[in-house]
Amino acid sequence: MNIGLFIMVMLLSITISTFPAYATTFQGKILESDSVTLKFGTNVIDYKGNIIPFIEKVELKLNSDSILVKNPVFRILGSSFVIKSFEDNIIIYGINKDSSFNFHTLIFTDNNLIKINDNAKFSTAEIIQEPTAQKTNNLHILVQSSLTTFNAQDFDFDIKAFDKLQYSGNDFQNFFGKIDGIKITAITKSPEGKVLNNQTGITKYGLYEGKIHVPANLWPSGWYTIEISADGDIGSVQKTIKFYVAGQTPPKGGSNAP
After folding, report:
1. Fewer C-beta neighbours within 10 Å, C or N terminus of the chain?
2. In what order do the strands lie in the sheet with 148-149?
3. Mean pLDDT: which of 35-49, 51-65, 97-111, 213-227 is highest?
4. What's the alpha-carbon Rg for the chain, to the nearest Å?
5. Within this chain, do residues 112 and 67 fall inside the same structural domain, yes or no?
């Protein structure tokens, strides 16, 4: 066994019973100097409950060359740490200096010992956000209703939901491409914007049948709105319709519609 391996075996024989609290500060960070880059991942917890920093990458920068250290082993020693690689015969000491570390790197070769001393500071590893996939909106709805109603009567409106890839036309009588299970929300508002009715339901056979009762002598004449929202797995659609409340129910054969 050469002197390098002997020293490394001696270091590994040191038993670390507990890890200091600052061990958690390594998670997700990078320690970088002119000659060494250490990249830490998510901490792991051993069977005793100790927090152990997980090191993802150890890279040496020698002149113009970059070397990835194989199978690095990370150990905390007091307020500092040591990294060892049996395969590459490398030891890196990190001596804690408040917000930085003094690095002492030893590289053992067959006939030589290379020593490198420099200083490293923490930097947060860059997090690359995954692009957000755009949700395709393939929901299409049609609304059918009358234009006018009167006090003490019901105002009916029907909503039909379609898969736009199968049908995107305006024929309400069409049933090709109809979709069940679409959630419908319909909010009725007065001419002044006051909410008068709020109803929800689900399309069945592609259809939602809405009904609003206009109370006697309580809704003055004017244009009322219904704000419709349709939501499903294939998308969301909003649409607004208007209807006119024409006052008292007209005598048979008469009409007060505008």
Report:
1. N
2. 148-149, 235-245, 222-232, 183-189, 195-202
3. 213-227
4. 37
5. yes
Which band of pLDDT confidence, cut at 50, 70 and 90, is reported for residue 170?
A: very high
CA distance 89 to 91: 7
Phi, psi (rounded to 5 degrees) for 49:
90, 10
* SS3 state at 58: strand
> Is beta strand 90-97 parallel, antiparallel or unpaired with respect to 80-85?
antiparallel
Q: What is the CATH number of the domain that holds 114?
A: 2.40.128
Helix (H) or strand (E) holding 113: strand 113-124
H or E segment and range at residue 5:
helix 3-12
Please tell me the predicted confidence (pLDDT) of residue 16: 39
Domain end (from 58, 91, 124)? 124
Give the domain extent around 107. Answer: 3-124
